[in-house]
Structure formats: structure tokens, C-alpha cells
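Annotated sample (chain length 149).
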Amino acid sequence: MAWTWAEIHYATGFDNGDLFTSAEQVREYFTVENIQAMFGECSYTQAELDEMAEAVISHRWHMAFPVNEYQSVYNDDRGIPHEAIQIPWDVVKDLLGREHRGTPDDDAFLVDYLLQSGAPEWVRDAEGWVDEHGWGLIGPEVAGAGEDD
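Output written by the structure step:
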């Protein structure tokens, strides 16, 4: 069975707490013993919980985001480099559980997700951009950029 975010949420409440920080932590959460300890019972088999865990891991649902893998440099219209984060569209879709709709709520969700995952504070108020590659945020100028040697 292909589990959806909503089905797993209603079955286990997996996304009510802090973000998972590793696949191992996800697998530890999705055990019959853990679900029983939290809810007093578990109506799922360990095999079903394993499927749920693998869906969470493969889609990175409610998992800390590896911000450093998506850090980039954005050159403004004057050629000045800025710190940036750009997330590919397929990853944005996994994080949101659907296509990005271009709404402030989608952007706020992604910014909050980045902050919870350890992104620099500048993402909170950063200017954004989108292009064919993904969704991005433009940060401060790169330290030392434009300085003469």
C-alpha cells in the first residue's frame, strides 16, 4: 500500500512533535511498542508500520531538512553574490505533500521548515525567487564579496 502523509498522520500522529533527525529515529518511532506506549493500543502490524516509516523516510516527511545540501550562491543584477538556499521542485513537492501553489502559506511553511532544520536566521525575512530549478531564498551578500585583494 502507498501510504499518504494524511493517512500516516491520522494513524500515528507522527508529525505532531519535533522533526525527526534521522531514518533510525523514524524507524524507532514506527514500532508497535512505541505506538502502544503513546496511544494505549496499536491496530497496525509491524509490517504496516515499517511501510509507513519507509514512506516518511523516502519523502522526508517531518524530517529535519539537510539545509547545507541546498545552500547556494545567488548573483543579483549587479553581479554581487549572495548566500542563498534553493530547493528543487521535486523536494518542495515532497515537503508540502503536493505541488507548490505560490501562496504565502506555502512559502511560510517552507521557511518554517528550514528554520526548524537549522537554516540561518536570515531565511526568516529573505526575499524569494522561483525558476525552473526550484524555490529559493536570497540572503545577505557573501562575506568578502567585492573586496579587492
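Annotation: The first helix runs from residue 5 to 12.
Annotation: Helices lie at 5-12, 23-29, 32-39, 46-59, 89-96, 104-116.
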